[in-house]
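Page 37, continued from 36.
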């Protein structure tokens, strides 16, 4: 199972889980409960100028990666102003709220796990009235130990490309949200291929979703070929065969999530080493 599509701002609509508890909060889901996924909700949130939410408590984790504008966030009583490139984890059961105090819309990629329920299913979201906002929340300060479970991503943070095996070559990973960061249910990171490489055919016992931040890459999902470009989404379900084939001279980097979190060993099963049993060793 897989899905490939492109973000279209025309698909943004009021978030059905918030109702009268938010204004100016719009949602464009890429994959959620209505799709084949069972572990995640993944898509784009937009908050219009002047938009805000009440304090919200949810029975799932939420990961945020900012792609445009600025958003004020209250999380467990501490206020932040997030800008493009910032990311944040909102743990399960933590009261939080959003506010756009600026003059332009703000957008972020949002990842939720375990998968939120449909609005008419078991209640997993609660509201606790208006947030207490300071006049101007501070930007995140990674030197301040009180600023936990937040960070900032920049393409320059990547290490030089690595060669791991013949099946995985030329890539660099910038981990953002994982168990060390404080997450329990998912990972979020950026993969970069600076000048070609390969991530050969493989599968695994968790779902993945991707949002291309820059460049383009050839992919093969369940035997079907696609070209992913900036602004495109893709998703692979548990057990889906998939591969990435970056081209020389065409850098690409994408935001990737995994849920549930992979095991400590044997999280990825590349096909070619196992194909040797059939093709070379003749078992």
């Amino acid at each position: 199972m897989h899905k490939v599509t492109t973000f279209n701002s025309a698909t943004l609509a009021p978030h059905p889980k918030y109702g009268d508890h938010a204004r100016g909060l719009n949602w464009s889901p890429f994959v959620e409960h209505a799709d084949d996924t069972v572990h995640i909700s993944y898509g784009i949130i937009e908050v219009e100028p002047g938009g805000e939410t009440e304090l919200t408590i949810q029975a799932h984790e939420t990961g945020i990666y900012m792609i445009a504008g600025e958003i004020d966030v209250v999380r467990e009583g501490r206020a932040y102003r997030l800008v493009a490139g910032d990311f944040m984890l909102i743990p399960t059961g933590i009261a939080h709220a959003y506010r756009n105090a600026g003059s332009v819309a703000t957008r972020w990629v949002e990842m939720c796990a375990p998968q939120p329920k449909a609005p008419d299913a078991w209640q997993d979201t609660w509201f606790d009235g208006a947030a207490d906002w300071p006049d101007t929340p501070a930007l995140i300060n990674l030197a301040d130990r009180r600023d936990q479970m937040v960070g900032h991503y920049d393409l320059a943070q990547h290490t030089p490309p690595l060669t791991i095996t013949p099946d995985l070559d030329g890539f660099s990973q910038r981990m953002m949200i994982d168990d060390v960061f404080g997450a329990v249910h998912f990972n979020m990171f950026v993969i970069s291929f600076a000048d070609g490489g390969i991530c050969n055919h493989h599968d695994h016992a968790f779902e993945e979703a991707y949002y291309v931040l820059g460049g383009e890459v050839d992919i093969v999902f369940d035997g079907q070929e696609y070209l992913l470009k900036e602004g495109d989404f893709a998703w692979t379900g548990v057990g889906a065969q998939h591969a990435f084939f970056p081209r020389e001279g065409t850098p690409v980097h994408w935001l990737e999530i995994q849920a549930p979190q992979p095991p400590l060993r044997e999280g990825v099963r590349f096909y070619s080493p196992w194909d040797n049993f059939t093709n070379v060793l003749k078992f």
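The two ends are 29 Å apart (CA to CA). Flag for discussion at group meeting. The first helix runs from residue 271 to 279.
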